[in-house]
Amino acid sequence: MPSDPVQALAQEPVDHRFKGLPPDAEHAGLTVGQLAAQQRNLYTGGFTTPVLTLDADALNHNLAALGTYAERHGLAFAPHGKTCMAPQLFHRQLAHGAWGITAAVPHQARVYRAFGIQRIFLANELVDAAALRWVAAELAADPGFRFVCYVDSVRGVELMDRALQGRPQRVEVVVELGAGEGARTGARSDDDCRAVADAVARVDTLRLVGVAGYEAEVPGAEPESVHAYLRRLTSLAVEFDKAGRFADAGEIVVSAGGSAWFDAVADVFAELPELSRPTLKLLRSGAYVSHDHGWYTRLTPFNRIPEEGGLRPAFRLWAQVVSRPSPTQAFVNAGKRDIAYDLGLPEVELVRNPLDGAGGAERPAPGVRVVKLSDQHTWLETDSADDLNVGDWVALGMSHPCTIFEKWPLIPVVEADGTVGDYVRTFF
What we know:
Layout: H1 5-8, H2 23-27, H3 32-37, E1 51-55, H4 56-72, E2 76-77, H5 87-95, E3 101-103, H6 106-114, E4 119-125, H7 129-141, E5 146-151, H8 154-164, E6 171-176, H9 190-201, E7 206-212, H10 223-242, E8 252-256, H11 262-270, E9 279-283, H12 295-299, E10 315-326, E11 329-332, E12 347-352, E13 362-364, E14 368-373, E15 378-382, E16 393-397, H13 401-405, E17 410-414, E18 420-425
Parallel strand pairs: 1-17, 2-9, 3-4, 4-5, 5-6, 6-7, 7-8, 8-9
Antiparallel strand pairs: 1-10, 10-11, 10-16, 11-15, 12-13, 12-16, 14-15, 17-18
Helix pairs in contact: 7-8, 10-11
């Protein structure tokens, strides 16, 4: 048994937990690693529909693209792991230069630690006493582990301090500046941030190391207002540094950056003057790893800065036509249980006729549209009775990586020729 927990994922048996995998692999008692070693073809190798896939080339491209972008702009990078919750992808992100992995809730941090992640940035105020005690125990047990989380209220600081009493390690925190009234979390005003920083200074269980925020929550976000918010954030960092609030910090952390405005983060963080200590300018974009066919295709900053690179949609969900009740209507065997739909309906990308040999030739389907989702069916509207036949495989492109990954615990990674050479395990 491998000592590396990521490598150990290959020893999991192929069984009923994993949708879309070949039934004969389970009957043969294969592990995930043994199935990967067989290099089966997605279309002829016994996979069942629906099946979600990741495009190997697009995945490689995206991992390199944002790692290169961050390095080019002098940014550290802690991609938000809640997007994929896939330890294999975390370690590939680290291999492409990521500083660590961002989490939103304690469960995610526990998954990260189970798979050896040594730096975790938790982008939320953490006031759960049991979770704080777990963090303190992890810090005590592993001197190489670093954990940073938000604080955004005096009450939160008090609750953290109470939970951490008697623990030898101080927990590093950053003050979260809210993006304005009607936005999500974060202290709403600079004075509120100062009050939170004062509260941290009064306790001996926490260490203030920086400031952070999330620019996509700026009401009516557009370039001018996003840049203005980020400049408030960096100004707060400068003010706190001059006031000696980071006196106990080894380095000063200034963090922002989702997947829609990382170009603005790069612009404003480049303006940050030299501070009294080394500065970790930390970007947290996460959706880039798979990108998508809708929401982030429209929002990615690479649309504004195409000369800096670009991302490719890596997801494709293959479903099969199981009913063709009229010339203008068809149904495939995937629905809300399988498909992300919170940011728009999926789009039909391709069709394959499995009777054409070698899994069928792919063809576009411009006359086929998704009009509705049921739990286990996608409703398709067609322009012609010849657009689709019962048995055809239909490829769907979807929006919002976070709600795509979460529906699939094991995802085949497919090469351009249809070969499945790897499988990505998720933990939601």
